[in-house]
Design brief:
Two copies of one chain form a homodimer.
Chain A lengths: L6 H8 L3 H8 L7 H14 L5 H8 L4 E6 L5 H16 L3 E6 L4 H13 L4 E4 L12 H5 L4 E4 L9 E5 L1 H14 L5 E5 L5 H16 L9 E3 L4 H11 L9 E4 L2 H13 L9 E3 L6 H4 L6 E3 L2 H16 L10 E4 L2 E3 L10
The structure holds a DNA duplex.
Chain lengths: ~350, ~350
DNA sequence: TTGTAAGCGTTATCAC
DNA sequence: GTGATAACGCTTACAA
C-alpha cells in the first residue's frame, strides 16, 4: 500500500507552502495563476487526492446527504432515488442511503446513524408505522435541513414535497363513479400516513358529492404486501354475496394483483369490476386490460427534493419559504375502468 | 448551533485523560470497569457523538462501502440493494450509492468519487457499455476489495457473485423447444456483458443440442429500453411474413411488454407464440397469461455480496479463496409458455 | 490501569 | 500573493 500524496508533498516539490497549495487547489482568487497551474499540474502528475476526512474535520461540513426511505425495492422508490442521486451527484454531494423496512424503530436507529455521520442534510419518507418523530429533533435543533417527501408529517417544521393525494383520490373515485360504479371499494394503507389518509378522504368526498353512502364494508386497510392483497381479495372480497363493481387501489401493484385474482375467479374487468390504481408504474401497462391509474412521477419528485436541498445548502433559495411543494399528478384512463365508451 | 461534545469535554468533567475516555468508549479491556461506566454514563448524559471524520482521518478507515450500479430504478436492482443495505447496515457500515446510468464515462467518474471518499470496499455491477476497466485499478493497487455482481468481467482479479446465466439461457430455450417451438427468438442486451452473452450462448447450445439451426433473423440485441422493445416488436417482428413461435426475452419487463404488444396485434400467447422471460419480477405474475421466467433472487444476491465483503473487511474469510460465487436460479413455468399440458 | 504527546491532512487566521 | 501556525477530534506508541 503506497503512501498517500498530501498537500505537503506537493508543497515540498514546488518549494512553496502547503497553505498556498491548499488555496491553489481551491482556486482561491489571490493565488498567482502560474502558481496555480504548477500546483494543478503536479497534483495531476502525482495522482493527488484530497482527503475528505481532514477537510470535513476542519470545515465541519461533510458534503453528504442522508436518505431514509421505507423500502428500496419498489419501482416508485427507485425512481425517486434515481432522481435524487442524479441531482445530488451533479452538485458534488454524496448520498448515504438506508431503509427503515417500514418500522419506526429502524427509522430511529437510521436517524441516529445519519446524525453521527454528520450529514449536511436529510431526506426522509416515513415508515409505515412512524407515529413519534422525536428522532428528527437532533437535526432540527442543530439546523440541519430535512426534506420529507411522499410520506410526510405536519408535526415537524420541515420542507415537504408531495402530490395532492386528496385530489388524486377524488379524481380516481369520481372517474369510477362516472363509469357508473355504484359500489366502489378502496384498498389502502395505514391511515395515519398522509398519503393514504388524503386519498381516502378524496375517495369519501367523491362518494359524498355523488350522494353515494360510504360503507365500512367497502373499505380495506392493510400493509399492502402481496400476501395481504391476496387475503383481502380471496378471503374477503370474493367471498361476498354482493360483489363490488369498482375498486380504487392505492398502488398499481395491488391493483394489478387484484385484477389478476379477479380474472382468475372468473370476473370480467372492467365489466364486472372496474379498477383504478395509483403511481403509473410500468406494471399498469402490461396487464389485460391495462390499468387506469394516477400518474405519480417519482423521478421528478426525487429531482425536486434534491434540488430544493442543494439550493438551500449552497445558500441560494430559502427552504423556509417553500415549506410545501405540491407536484402535479393526473389520472390516466386505460381499459381497466372504461365500461362506457364516452 | 450548540458546540459539539468531544472526548475532551468528557475527560475534563471526569478528571481523567482524553485517552482514557477514548479507550473506555471503545471498550478497551485495560480500562477499569468503573471508569468505563462513568464514561458511558456521562457520554449518554451529554449526548456525546463520536466524530467519524477525526476517527477516519486517524485510522485511515471509513466504515463506508461504495456501490456503483447501472441504474437504481429497476425492481431487480432495488432488491439487490435492499439486500446489501440490510447486511451492511447491521454490520455497522455505511453505503454510498451511485448510478452509472449505463455509461462507462459516468462509471469512471463515480469510481473516482468513491476512491476520493476512501471507501473501504466497492460493490459494482457494470454499465451497459463498459469495456475498459482501468478505473478500478486504483482500488486493486491499494488493496481495496471489490466485489462484482450480476454484470461482471473476467478481466479483473476480483470476487464475483453471479448466477449461471448459460444454464439459465439453456433451460429457458430448452423449455420452449420442449413446448414444440421451432422458431425461437431471443431478445437480449449487449453481448459484451457476461449476463447477456452467457444467456445467448445457452440459447444457442440448446438449439444446437436439438438440431435446430440458429438464425440471425431470430436474434435481436438492443438496450432493452421500453422504446427499443416497442421498435423490435412492432417494426420488426410483427412485420414478418413468417412469425416466430417462441420468444426468450432477457428480462421480464421486455417479456411482459412484448406479450402485451403481441396480444394487441391479435396473436395468442402461448398458442401462436410462447414466451419466457427472466428475473421473476412481480410483473411476470400479473400479465395474462403469466410469464414463464427464470427465478433470479436479487435480494439474496445482495445479501451474499455484502456478507462476503463484510467477512473480508472484518478479517474473517478470505476473499481470494472464493473468487466466484454462483447462486441458484431455476425455471418457473407459467402460462405464457405452456402449449402442451404435459 | 492510566496519562503524555504526536500525528492523521486540511483550512482559517493572522501576518508580512 | 504567500507563509507560519494553530486547530478540527480522534487514536496510538510509549511511558509511568
Amino acid at each position: 500500500m503506497k503512501k498517500e500524496i498530501t498537500i505537503y508533498d506537493l508543497a515540498e516539490k514546488l518549494n512553496i507552502s502547503a497553505t498556498t497549495v491548499s488555496r491553489g487547489l481551491q482556486n482561491h482568487p489571490a493565488i498567482n495563476i502560474n502558481t496555480k497551474k504548477k500546483i494543478f499540474d503536479l497534483a495531476k502528475e502525482l495522482g493527488y487526492q484530497s482527503n475528505k476526512f481532514a477537510s470535513s474535520l476542519r470545515k465541519q461540513k461533510t458534503h453528504t446527504i442522508g436518505v431514509i426511505v421505507p423500502r428500496l425495492n419498489s419501482l416508485f422508490m427507485s425512481s425517486v432515488l434515481s432522481g435524487i442521486e442524479k441531482v445530488v451527484n451533479n452538485a458534488g454531494y454524496n448520498l448515504i442511503i438506508s431503509q427503515s423496512f417500514e418500522q419506526e424503530e429502524k427509522e430511529k436507529t437510521n436517524a441516529i446513524t445519519m446524525y453521527n455521520n454528520r450529514v449536511d442534510a436529510l431526506i426522509v419518507s416515513l415508515s409505515y408505522d412512524s407515529a413519534d418523530f422525536t428522532h428528527f429533533n437532533n437535526f432540527i435543533n442543530k439546523g440541519i435541513p430535512i426534506v420529507f417527501f411522499d410520506r410526510v408529517t405536519d408535526s415537524l417544521p420541515v420542507t415537504k414535497v408531495v402530490i395532492d393525494n386528496f385530489k388524486a383520490g377524488y379524481d380516481a373515485t369520481m372517474h369510477l363513479i362516472e363509469q357508473n360504479c355504484k359500489s366502489i371499494m378502496h384498498i389502502t394503507g395505514n391511515l395515519t400516513r398522509n398519503v393514504y389518509k388524503d386519498r381516502y378522504e378524496g375517495y369519501r368526498k367523491a362518494l359524498a358529492d355523488s350522494y353515494i353512502p360510504f360503507s365500512d364494508d367497502l373499505f380495506i386497510t392493510n400493509d399492502l404486501s402481496e400476501q395481504e392483497i391476496y387475503n383481502a381479495v380471496t378471503n374477503n372480497i370474493l367471498k361476498r354475496k354482493q360483489l363490488p363493481d369498482g375498486l380504487f387501489a392505492t398502488n398499481d401493484s395491488a391493483a394489478a394483483y387484484a385484477l389478476t385474482l379477479f380474472k382468475e375467479a372468473g370476473l370480467k374487468v372492467p365489466e364486472d369490476i372496474a379498477i383504478v390504481g395509483f403511481n403509473n408504474d410500468f406494471i399498469s401497462k402490461v396487464t389485460e386490460p391495462a390499468i387506469t391509474t394516477i400518474n405519480y412521477p417519482g423521478n421528478e419528485m426525487g429531482e425536486n427534493v434534491a434540488r430544493i436541498l442543494i439550493n438551500h445548502l449552497d445558500g441560494e433559495g430559502d427552504l423556509s419559504l417553500t415549506s410545501t411543494v405540491i407536484l402535479n399528478s393526473e389520472l390516466i384512463v386505460r381499459g381497466s375502468s372504461l365500461k362506457s365508451k364516452v
